[in-house]
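anyone seen this seq b4? input:
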Amino acid sequence: MRTVGPHAVSRPGNRSLVPTASGDASAYVDHFLAAFRPRACEPSVLPLFRRELDDAALRAFLLAQDVVYVGGGNTANLLAVWRAHGVDRLMVEAYGRGTLLCGISAGANCWADGSHTDSFGPLTFLPDGLGLLPGSVCPHYDSEPGRRASYTAAVASGALPGGWALEDGVGALFIDGLLTETVTRAPGARIYRVEVDGKNGAVERAVPCSVLPLRRGGPPTVPGQSSMA
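predicted toks r here
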């Protein structure tokens, strides 16, 4: 999922992975760098569990990025670590300056007002996030048993505001909080708008997605995929 602010850049060059949700897992970092080093961009990684930058350098680093890609893992841990280091405030500042913020799983959850997560073990709701995307987010809508029922119940009860549920393989672009484009690498996969139905339940509205063309050698991949969120 990608979120773009009001002054978004048109040709991103600097791309940084923020792997906080996975505890800065080395395999995640290696996968990201292998995917982007051959491309026409400057890939980098921002580790926080072994942080090297002081506050001024950390701010300068994040604000110099055209794209910030946040990896999957534990949403609650990600938010806690970001706040401890002031990264939450810097992400909001970067968004206002036009940085494209994106991510998968926990890296999608973090941008919204709230999300559906297994950060605490069982599936549950997390009424917390950076609030750059109004509403809530639920990843892995089709691939994890119980996700769909648990998320719709959270929306129906008011534990989470209405929001977006994404099946695996779907990408969504939001500009100023509005959905503007949806794509998928898995034919048939969809994103859903989930809202209360006024009858103590929730209703889904499916949004069709354009299918991405296959890359040579197989389907397109997402660096560092994670099923945890």
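The chain is about 25% helix and 30% strand. The helical segments are 26-36, 55-63, 75-85, 87-96, 106-109, 147-157. kinda curious what u guys think
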